[in-house]
Amino acid sequence: MTELERYKYDVLVIGAGGAGLRAAVEAREAGLRVAIICKSLFGKAHTVMAEGGAAASMGNVNSGDNWQVHFRDTMRGGKFLNHYRMAELHAKESPDRIYELEMWGALFDRTKEGKISQRNFGGHEYPRLAHVGDRTGLELIRTMQQKIVQLQQKDAREYGNAEANIRVFAELTITEIIKEKGVVAGAYGYWREGGNEVLFEAQAVIIATGGVGKTFKITSNSWEGTGDGHALALKAGANLVDMEFLQFHPTGMVWPPSVRGILVTESVRGEGGVLTNTLGERFMFKYIPDVFKDKYADNEEEADRWYLDQDNNRRPPELLPRDEVARAINSEVKAGRGTEHGGVFLDVSKRIPAEVIKKRLPSMWHQFYELAGVDITKEAMEVGPTCHYVMGGVEVEPDTAAAIGVPGLFAAGEVAGGMHGSNRLGGNSLSDLLVFGRRAGMGAAAYVKSATAVAVSEASVKAAADRIQAPFTRAGGENAYSLHQELQEVTHNLVGIIRTGSELKDAIEKIADIRKRSQNVSVAGDRKFNPGFHLAFDLDNMLLVAESTAKSAIAREESRGGHTRDDFPGMNDKWRQVNHISSYNGSEVVVREQKLPTLPKELFDLFDIHELEKYMTSEEIAKGGSN
Amino acid sequence: MARKVNLRIWRGDSNSGALQNVEVEANEGEVVLDVIHRVQATQMGDLAVRWNCKAGKCGSCSMEINGKPRLACMTRMSSFEEGEEITVTPLRAFPVIKDLVADVSFNYKKAMEIPAYEHPADLGPGEARMEQIDVERSQEFRKCIECFLCQDTCHVIRDHEENKKSFAGPRFFIRIAELDMHPLDMLKNRKRTAQEEHGLGMCNITKCCTEVCPEHIRITDNAIIPMKERVVDVKYDPARWLGSKIRRREG
Amino acid sequence: MSGVFSPSRAQIKERTLRTDKWWLQPLATFGVLFSFVIYATFRAFEGDYYYKDHLISPFYSPCLSEACVDEAVIGGFAPISAQIFNFPLSPALIILIFPLGFRMTCYYYRKAYYRAFWMSPPACAVAEPHKKYTGETRQPLILQNAHRWFFYAGLIFNVILTYDAIISFKNKDGEWGAMSVGSLVLVFSAAMLWMYSLSCHTCRHTIGGRLKHFSKHPIRYKAWTTISRLNHSHALFAWISLFAVAFADIYVRQVASGAWTNFYFFE
């Protein structure tokens, strides 16, 4: 075997999506040496898939917007299960994060006055999403990628070496976060290309690995969404919060099969697309929950008027929060009013002229035309729910993004939990990763400056190395590909969009069984760019995530946001006060209840008391927030 | 409706390699990447292939399919004739790592050589004002998903390894054009350096980059030729040169 | 071994694995352009049959010889230039430099002939046969950068050929109001030349492409938008105008030599 490569940095950022890159920029600008790890090539992270935009209450299109309104929308969307402080920081800071990108060269679409244009999106009271056509995520990634290049160019001028202080390690997998004496000391991994192993010594590790979609059969996530960061954090002793909450994006492509799961952005509905069943019925009007009755139109005329006059009409119900729309589509399909491929129709062709569609939704048009042979300016799309986003994630300190319980560990972006409560609003993800990516970078920088470094012990190195070698030492074991498929069947059928206690129990047993068999996975071929080998590690991560999700889901006996229990329909005030905390005891995931932090008075007072009554118990209302 | 298809997949590494025949099932509506994945899951567990989003948005699954640089996720199986043999190889302008995976680090090195965007010092957060018509040209180039198919097909480096050191390639010509057309970028010498340092003059506008671009960016017409014209403005046009001396600024 | 056969690259012995008829387009381009060059050379040296009854071949316009002297209407060029130049060879040799230069340096034709004649590359992802390649960085190809000067010259020629087309609406006695097949041929040829010039990349650059802020120049932006649309079809105009000019010359030649009779719709 080749010799172990060793690197020393101040901060190690695992993940090169939006949150990771933003964190890296912040840590570097604080004067630290930073390494960025990407599992794939630099600039390919799943962030590029984000289409709609980044929510920030700049008020460029409607001056009535401000952080308080954004905060309210976020809490409402999350069904008040959000960590209030995260939602508050997010709402307050996202405009600045957007402006910052502009100063780094991003080119957002503009208003007539030359400001950054903002578009409507589900759950947002005002047009709020800064966007670039429907490829906003790509713009974010590219801008930050280029910002990092700029920092490297500066280092090249000053130190004669572009990679002196910030380096991107592309196509490298981290298999373990190494702790010594209870604090983070570094991380261990291997190059995907050649298979040789790498040790990073770093005082602070920022996890920004994104989501867990690949745990599920139908997902909008790429192969990278295997919950690596969730699992790494769990194993390092951190907690995951509320892993039962998964967002099924209501509109994924359902046909043809090769593109199953790929997203149809919400902007299609924001621009006027409507959902119909096979009877031609615009069914969303039937599914407006009571808590939203005063915000959403209950008839087609008003809904259509809204596109022209947003101040005097209520919004069309197609723009309800994602969980509501996903459940509605699910119900229509179950009631036999879905298409033969298990979806419903989403149509813009009859409502918007072809040129306007191509102008406003260029990559959607492109995606359907090239991948599916469907021209959305002429025909309807077939869509259905697809696993899109995990609200749950690493439990963090809101202000610093520090993972609770593990000094030196930080988490930001999708891998962090709490910000979105039980359901995320569209557009809040891109702004989340900017706001908390930066905060993680700041948090890590402050930590590094105050803490003292600990060295990685040889025992830890050996343990990590053995673990990587293990799959090759087993002959004739299980095939990782088939175990992965089995896991996806279990999650899809038993932990999917609609859940029941008995199925969840079944799922927990099945996941435990697959996990046991996964200990015996063997790999064909050698270490060199071997996807079977890579999957063996991803599988391990996905299994931990699935276990955490299933165990949290069986514990929560209510339906809220991205967690729907057939046997416990409806929200329950009692459960609103509860977070589920997952931890790992070395052999399995353990879930316990923890009380949600109480809304402070000044944030409590932002809401209409009658609205809060829909979510909170009378004692909570009487208390009126904490001081 | 599954059918059997014949694939010829290049397998090997930088030392040796060859095309291997394999028969695999293909279903209705599938793309080449689906079929490669099936080969991987059922017959060649260690077949190396790069991919991410499988939706034509990340530009990872670049390879050559029947000799043409393409994204495997955007090449539908229905585009081949019944019984047609499909040959899949790694990108041939770059060193191979293994099987269908090429070493594209050249492109990241080139990215490092293009001077970054320079924001006006007097414009603070939120103060920038840009008209939509002024950002649209650059926005076209920012659609680039960095699949590097344009780099792969460009004969300047595909057929001449020795040109790699002095030629940035189409992907980075659109980057330069994007910045030169950016309404707020303050760096003034992009035209001159495009020609003198990044090898714009090596391009003989044979348009293969435009032909292969999965994002349909009009690389040649909208970026390279306009940049060549801008270079003429500052380097080869005596009248413009004189004008710029008098007005003391560059186009 | 270089290029796709470099040692670090995937070892594949074929210079291309393309299965389509990639050679067809360069071959066709080669055939057509080569025929045109042969014909144009022949005509340039022929020095005859370029004028008849207010029809002048675009290859020989403006008329630099005394053949047109009886028609001083043609810009008054002929008598003067004939004296100045006292040119022993065919006047087309002087004239053709400009349109030829415009086409030789045209961004579209460059693509066409680099591929078809120089095989650099013959087609996309087909290895080219050359050992070295320096593109347009040194002499003589660096002269391609003079495209805009040929564009300006081309515009002057367009004006002259437009004038010629108008003149062709005179009858044999020099009275206005006639129209013959020849007039239509010349009008079409002039119109296509205008389309070719206006859709040109240099034109697009000059009219607005060089601006950084369109919003400060609304009229130029509008013009740029229109020209950008035309520019999409630049290749098409390049071919149509080439055929139109060649046909106009053939037509005039046949009429002037007496092989064809120019049919008048009204005289």
UniProtKB/TrEMBL annotation, chain A:
Q: Where is the FAD-dependent oxidoreductase 2 FAD-binding domain?
A: 10-430
One GO term in the molecular function aspect is: oxidoreductase activity
Tell me where the transmembrane regions lie: none
List the keywords (alphabetical).
FAD, Flavoprotein, Oxidoreductase
| Listed name of the protein | Unannotated protein
Q: Does the keyword Flavoprotein apply?
A: yes
Cofactors that this protein relies on: FAD
Where does the Fumarate reductase/succinate dehydrogenase flavoprotein-like C-terminal domain lie? Answer: 484-582
A Pfam match is Succ_DH_flav_C
Automatic annotation (TrEMBL), chain B:
Q: Which family does it belong to?
A: Belongs to the succinate dehydrogenase/fumarate reductase iron-sulfur protein family.
Choose one Gene Ontology CC annotation of this protein and give it.
Answer: plasma membrane
Question: Keywords on this record?
Answer: 2Fe-2S, 4Fe-4S, Iron, Iron-sulfur, Metal-binding, Oxidoreductase
Which BP terms does GO give this entry?
respiratory electron transport chain; tricarboxylic acid cycle
Its source organism is freshwater metagenome
**Which residues are the signal sequence here?**
none
What pathway is this protein a component of?
Carbohydrate metabolism; tricarboxylic acid cycle
UniProt protein name: Unannotated protein
Residues in a coiled coil are none
* Domain (2Fe-2S ferredoxin-type) ranges: 3-92
Membrane-spanning intervals of the chain: none
Q: Does the keyword Membrane apply?
A: no
Please list the cofactors this protein needs: [3Fe-4S] cluster; [4Fe-4S] cluster; [2Fe-2S] cluster
Q: Check the record and name the Pfam families matching this protein.
A: Fer2_3 (PF13085), Fer4_8 (PF13183)
Q: Does the keyword Cytoplasm apply?
A: no
GO terms of molecular function: 2 iron, 2 sulfur cluster binding; 4 iron, 4 sulfur cluster binding; electron transfer activity; metal ion binding; oxidoreductase activity
Automatic annotation (TrEMBL), chain C:
Q: Which keywords fit this entry according to its UniProt record?
A: Membrane, Transmembrane, Transmembrane helix
Membrane-spanning residues: 22-42, 89-109, 149-170, 176-196, 236-256
Name of the protein: Unannotated protein
At the highest ranks, the source species' classification is: unclassified sequences, metagenomes, ecological metagenomes
